[in-house]
Design a protein that fits this description.
The complex is a heterodimer. Chain A is α/β, with parallel strands linked by helices. In chain A, 24% of the residues lie in helices and 30% in strands. In chain A, the strands form 2 sheets. Chain A has a 5-stranded parallel sheet, sandwiched between helices. The radius of gyration of chain A is 16 Å and the shape is globular. The model of chain A has no long low-confidence stretch (mean pLDDT 91). Chain B starts with 16 loop residues before the first helix and ends with a helix. Chain B is globular. Chain B contains 11 helices and 9 strands. In chain B, 38% of the residues lie in helices and 14% in strands. Chain B folds into 2 domains: 141 residues, Aspartate/ornithine carbamoyltransferase (Rossmann fold, 3-Layer(aba) Sandwich), CATH 3.40.50.1370; 147 residues, 3-Layer(aba) Sandwich (Rossmann fold), CATH 3.40.50. In chain B, the strands form 2 sheets. In chain B, strands 7-6-5-8-9 form a 5-stranded parallel sheet, with helices on both faces. In chain B, helix 1 packs across helix 11, helix 2 crosses helix 11 and helix 5 packs across helix 6. Classes of the chains: A alpha/beta, B alpha/beta. At the A-B interface, loops of A face helix 1 and helix 11 of B.
């Protein structure tokens, strides 16, 4: 197993600010917009973006929720490992709202497909957009593309992109490309 | 990654504490799901489940069916009264005929203790025991513990008294196993004729006096008087039973602490508990019913994930 750093802590910081600015450009004061972090790893990115919007750009209230897609995945019983659920926490209805899905890595697109189905349990959104930190292009199984992307990465299928977050599971925000993960 | 240690849920006796914790954690997620505006998830859309009830049931059958439908499984249900069992077909034949129609899981209630166990050894499907005679009723015990955990924070260290007809009760036996596994203390209380003779060998206390039992406990699980199983007179009259072993509001209010009242249903109002107790703040009876769906969703989901 070998790993290569794709984004340093400083680069991640610049990208998060750019993504926050791009969101403001489209959604103004976020009065009709909700951010939904896709569990488990999208949660951390969604929290970061939401904090930047509040603290550095003065957006007073941003609705932030977390969506677990385990029960909506299409690989139930097709995986050797059982699927483990996480907490869904959406304390608002998404009816007629502009929803922004937030996830760390966009790979095959299957998680987002599941999220598109799962979110319907909470109402009919006006529109849904997708924000990802890493877009692994050329590896999509479904016609799904991000609206906001941090960095495009070309990686082989047997390589893994790992996003680590400071205060969650690593000493610094960093993105790695891991070859031959076990 | 976590998964159940068993391929069938035949009884609490055959699972372990980790299984119970996993079922509870999964049920937490499903409880959130069934409180959404749209209460359905597509996980089990390629699974077919047969509910086979050789004995009458309303709530357990409804609860299982609802759980299966919330998970998007295909469900077929049948009751013995309308089936070929009456024509003399054996249990294995009946079930194998159903399995030939490509059924992945069987939920069965049967009046013979061990029927689910017998089936699990003889047919190729995941079996869930929904009650076998006076033996076990595992999903009921799981939802009872889940309701205690929800109301009191945890099950470990709590004192639970099971009141009434322990002799004919599968709920009692499964509850004793489940509660002890999670570190709770268990006592049984009831007329001596309705308490199995060697019950204390299971490590439970016996107290014939209801007031003393209630003073001791944190939770009282009031079993139903199963009139349909009482083939001889185990107590002089229903009125006398209600006087000796029924809980009314006056008794509840006279206790030194507030206890939680549970009942597996259906309630004989005025016998095991009076209406004002059943409808009081201390009662979690309707929570038990709601939790029943979440627990059964968790059990079915976890067992289905092991079907290859």
């Amino acid at each position: 197993m070998s790993s290569k750093i794709l984004l340093t802590s400083k680069e991640v910081d610049i990208i998060l600010h750019r993504l926050a600015c791009q969101l403001i450009e489209k959604h103004n004061d976020f009065s009709n917009t909700v951010l939904i972090g896709i569990q488990p790893r999208g949660k951390f990115l969604a929290e970061r973006i939401s904090t930047i919007l509040k603290n550095e750009y003065g957006i007073s209230s941003v609705d932030l929720g977390f969506l677990d897609i385990t029960f909506f995945r299409d690989d139930f019983r097709r995986n050797d490992k059982p699927l483990e659920a996480n907490k869904t926490q959406i304390d608002f209805l998404v009816e007629d709202k502009n929803v922004v899905f937030i996830d760390d890595v966009l790979h095959t697109g299957r998680s987002i497909r599941a999220a598109l189905t799962a979110i319907q349990s909470f109402g009919r959104p006006n529109e849904i957009e997708l924000l990802v930190l890493i877009d692994r292009r050329f590896s999509r199984h479904l016609p799904i593309q991000p609206d906001y992307r941090g960095r495009q990465v070309d990686a082989f299928n047997n390589e893994k992109v790992k996003v680590q977050w400071k205060n969650e599971d690593a000493p610094a925000d960093e993105v790695y490309l891991i070859s031959n993960p076990s | 990654m976590k998964e159940l240690s068993v391929n069938h849920l035949l009884g609490i006796k055959y699972i372990n504490k980790n299984d119970i914790n996993l079922i509870f954690e999964t049920a937490d997620h499903f409880k959130e799901v069934i409180n959404r505006p749209i209460k359905k998830v597509p996980s089990l859309r390629d699974i077919t489940i047969a509910n086979i009830f050789f004995e009458n049931s309303t709530r357990t059958k409804l609860s299982f069916e609802l759980a299966q439908k919330r998970l998007s499984a295909d469900v077929i249900s049948f009751s013995a009264a309308q089936s070929s069992v009456k024509k003399g077909e054996t249990l294995i034949d009946t079930v194998n005929n159903i399995l030939s129609m490509k059924v992945d899981m069987v939920v069965m209630r049967h009046s013979n203790p061990g029927a689910a166990h017998f089936l699990s050894r003889n047919v190729k499907a995941s079996i869930v025991n929904a009650g076998d005679g006076a033996h076990e009723h595992p999903t009921q015990a799981l939802l009872d513990s889940f309701s205690i955990r929800e109301r009191l924070g945890e099950v470990a260290g709590k004192k639970v008294v099971i009141v009434g007809d322990v002799l004919h009760s599968r709920v009692a036996l499964s509850n004793i196993f489940a509660l002890q596994m999670q570190g709770a203390e268990v006592m049984v209380c009831g007329p001596k004729t309705l308490i199995p003779r060697y019950i204390t060998d299971l490590g439970v206390k016996y107290e014939p006096n209801l007031r003393k039992a209630l003073e001791w406990c944190d939770v009282a699980n009031m079993l139903r008087v199963q009139n349909e199983r009482l083939d001889v007179n185990y107590f002089p009259s229903t009125r006398e039973y209600a006087q000796q072993y029924g809980v009314d509001k006056a008794l509840l209010d006279s206790l030194s602490k507030e206890i939680v009242i549970m009942h597996p249903g259906p309630i004989n109002r005025g016998v095991e508990i009076t209406s004002d107790v059943a409808d009081s703040q201390q009662s979690v009876i309707l929570d038990q019913v709601e939790n029943g769906v979440a627990i059964r969703m968790a059990v079915i989901y976890l067992l289905a994930s092991k079907i290859k």
